[in-house]
Amino acid sequence: MRRHQRYDAEQIVRDSGRAAGDEPLFGPVLNIKVFDYQLDIPDVQAQTHTLATGPVNDLELALFPDVHGDLSI
């Protein structure tokens, strides 16, 4: 894991001097999920589903590849 990846949101809030729950540190989020959702397990049929994307403070757009390789919102 890279060093900057270990710096989580709680530490950023604490280091910024803000109290948790004050103004958010960032606004709209664009999450482009272009990794392979296909499960390849021998003799098993499986399908993935997005169960939750987490709490949203502002606006979140998530882009997913469809069965044709195009991106869907």
Automatic annotation (TrEMBL):
Gene3D superfamilies the UniProt entry points to: Nonribosomal peptide synthetase, condensation domain
Q: What name goes with this protein?
A: Enterobactin synthase subunit F
Give a yes or no for keyword Nucleotidyltransferase in this entry.
Answer: yes
Q: Which organism is it from?
A: Escherichia coli
**What are the entry keywords?**
Nucleotidyltransferase, Transferase
Q: What superkingdom heads the lineage?
A: Bacteria
Does the entry feature the keyword Transferase, yes or no? yes
- Entry-linked SUPFAM superfamilies: CoA-dependent acyltransferases
**The EC number(s) this enzyme carries:** 2.7.7.-
Molecular function (Gene Ontology), one example: nucleotidyltransferase activity
